[in-house]
Amino acid sequence: FDMLKRLGRASFRIGAGGLATGVVGAWALQLTNPELFEAGIRIGRCGQTAFVMSLSYGWARWGLNEKERSRATQEAHPRNAERLKALLFKNKGIYIKVGQILGTLDYLIPKAYVNEMRDCFDEAPESSWEDVRRTIENELGRPLEEVFSSFEQNPIASASLAQVHQAITHDGRKVAVKVQHEYLRRMARAEITIVESLMKTVRYFFPEFGFQWLVDEMKLNIPKELDFVQEANNADRCRRIL
C-alpha cells in the first residue's frame, strides 16, 4: 500500500510537472522564441518519459519480495531502455550525447541499456546551411567569403554536437571546418539542469533508481565537449607528441 501511494504521488508530480512545463511553457514561448518553444517540447518529453519509466519499474516490483523484485527489475530493463532511446532520438543534440555516454558504460549500467544506447552512435542530426553559415560568421566576425574561397554546403560528417564541412582557404589550403550545432551552447546548461531535476524527482520516489552519476558526468564533460578551442589545443598537442 505504501508503494502504491508513492506511485500515486510520483505519477502526479512527475507527470504534472512535465506536462505543465512542456505544454504551458511551450505555448507561451512558441511565437516569440522558437528555440525556447522547442526546448519546452523537449522538457515535456523528458517529464513524460521519466513518469512512464518510474511507473513501469514501480509497478513491476510492487508487492514482491526482494528476490522477486530483482527479477522483475531485470525484466523491466529492456522496455524502459527502448523508451529512453526513443526520448533521446526525439530530443537529439545533447540527449544523443547522453545516449552515447551510456552506450560505453558496459560494466556500470544494465546490458539492455548499453545495447539500446549504442544506436545513438548512428543518430547524427544535421544543422541547416543557413545555421552553419550564421555560426561561422558570428564566430569569425566577418563574411564567410572573406575566409574561404569555396565551402561545401553539405557536411561530410555529422555527430551529436557538431558537423564537418570541406572548404578551401584563399591561400589554397584544403581544410575541414567543424561547426557546432548552433543552439547547443545556449541551451546546454538549461537542458542539463532539466535532466538533473527530473533525475532528482525520480530518485526521491525511487531511491534505488537514482542516476545522479549520469548528471554529474554531463555537467563535467559536455561543457568540455562544446569547447572547440580546447579541443583544437588538445589536437595540436597530440600532433606535436606524435
Automatic annotation (TrEMBL):
TM ranges: none
Pfam families for this protein: ABC1 (PF03109)
Ranges where the ABC1 atypical kinase-like domain occurs: 122-240
GO biological process: lipid homeostasis; mitochondrion organization
Domain of life: Eukaryota
SUPFAM superfamilies membership: Protein kinase-like (PK-like)
GO cellular component: mitochondrial inner membrane
Protein name: ABC1 atypical kinase-like domain-containing protein
Organism encoding this protein: Amorphochlora amoebiformis
